[in-house]
User: Which sequence fits this backbone?
């Protein structure tokens, strides 16, 4: 008899716990079936899939080209080249500086240079990388860094030229 009373008491206790659960989480029991869980997971996956293009652009030649062009808008090759020519002119004899700057800024085909840059960027970088470059160089810090790039190139160009000449001389021996 005690066993039966204990089982009845245990069953009553479990039933009251279920009743409490229903009161605390009224809609939770509807989502307990495996079929319903599968539906929820499928809905979640479909929702995230539908939004994924918003979070990351596809990596195609078209998206790469778009981001490469955006990069050249925030970091125009003409301005970069003019600044670099100006800074490099400091390493040329004084009587040849103006002629050097004139040739470098008027005779260089910026359109051809820009096309070559875009084509190379599309070939070598992903859309995400190009987007990051455009975002950075479009930012105040990136613009500041680009303003210093001409001076940087002017500082290292003599060393680069010297090392190339040394390597070429060794090749001839």
Assistant:
């Amino acid at each position: 008899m005690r066993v039966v009373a204990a089982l009845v008491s245990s069953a009553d206790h479990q039933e009251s716990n279920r009743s409490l659960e229903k009161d605390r989480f009224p809609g939770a029991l509807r989502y307990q079936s495996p079929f319903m869980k599968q539906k929820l997971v499928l809905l979640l996956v479909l929702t995230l899939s539908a939004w994924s293009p918003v979070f990351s652009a596809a990596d195609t030649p078209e998206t790469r080209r778009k981001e490469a062009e955006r990069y050249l808008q925030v970091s125009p090759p003409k301005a970069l080249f003019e600044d670099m020519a100006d800074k490099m002119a400091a390493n040329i004899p004084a009587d040849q500086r103006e002629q050097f700057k004139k040739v470098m800024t008027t005779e260089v085909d910026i359109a051809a240079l820009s096309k070559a840059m875009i084509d190379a960027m599309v070939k070598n970088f992903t859309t995400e990388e190009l987007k990051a470059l455009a975002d950075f160089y479009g930012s105040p810090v990136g613009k500041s860094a680009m303003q210093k790039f001409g001076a940087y190139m002017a500082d290292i160009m003599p060393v680069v030229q010297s090392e190339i000449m040394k390597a070429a001389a060794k090749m001839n021996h």
